[in-house]
């Protein structure tokens, strides 16, 4: 790739981000902030797993072709969408219900103005704050993707048994360094949950020797019937699952990480220093997570004619 082409690409991304503003809806939908805030708070109160579910949907959306709400598009008889990919089968319905509630309210207040991508990005930030996490700025003005293809997912998402090398490579391909990776994984998992099938190999039949024996027994009891019940799951932070805090990193230092890929972060020399930093410094974790999320939320955003404002978040307009 030539330097002129690189310059044009970087100029394009800079231009794209410049089109996003904090007050994008100030005149066209002044109720936007209050609608998202109030419905997010209500949904989280009713269903405490909403924050974790929404944060996971947000990450899965942004990782695949950018933060464009492509993850929200339902598959049809003519198109297998990102939701058809097996990793995305476990995305929780609470998140999709939240986005639908907000979209319905926003369309009543200011029809055809607010994108689903902006709703998802803002609701995610609000839920992080509600559960105790840091506030960060969310630039607005994203357009919604015109496509959602299952074939786009494989190259971008990692599985629960991923190696550190693979995780680093995936994040670096998106422009994120090792520190970004560790803080985003920790932040995503501090209030997260995972289905038993994703870590069953660590507890059945022979437990992973790196796991705390007490944790193994707890998870074995919790997941005893996971093969007949695909919905069985466990919190990733077994100490303070409902609070957005730095306890997950403390857990990894004690060998009580549920996912093997999480626990590896404490054994690899490239990632261990950041685990130790965030375990011992909650302020550093909060600050670095906020900065990383600002960076994630503008990843490959669509603007102008690159996308649209969907009438329904689960389908593109021409359908």
UniProtKB/TrEMBL annotation:
Cofactor annotation remark: Binds 2 calcium ions per subunit.
A Gene Ontology biological process term: hydrogen peroxide catabolic process
Binding-site residues, heme b: 189
CDD domains: secretory_peroxidase (cd00693)
Disulfide-bonded cysteines: 29-110, 62-67, 116-313, 196-223
Subcellular location: Secreted
Coiled-coil boundaries: none
Cleavable signal peptide: 1-18
Cofactor annotation: Ca(2+); heme b
EC number: 1.11.1.7
This protein's GO CC annotations: extracellular region
Reaction(s) this enzyme catalyzes, per UniProt: 2 a phenolic donor + H2O2 = 2 a phenolic radical donor + 2 H2O
Calcium in keyword set: yes
Chain positions recorded as Ca(2+) 2 binding sites: 190, 237, 245
Entry's Gene Ontology molecular function annotations: heme binding; lactoperoxidase activity; metal ion binding
Iron found in the keyword field: yes
Keywords from the named record: Calcium, Disulfide bond, Glycoprotein, Heme, Hydrogen peroxide, Iron, Metal-binding, Oxidoreductase, Peroxidase, Secreted, Signal
Domain Plant heme peroxidase family profile: 19-317
Catalytic residue list: 60 (proton acceptor)
Binding positions (Ca(2+) 1): 61, 64, 66, 68, 70, 82
Known function: Suggested to catalyze the deposition of the aromatic residues of suberin on the cell wall and thus play a role in cell-suberization.
Family, similarity comment: Belongs to the peroxidase family. Classical plant (class III) peroxidase subfamily.
Name the UniProt record assigns to this protein: Peroxidase
Species of provenance: Solanum stoloniferum
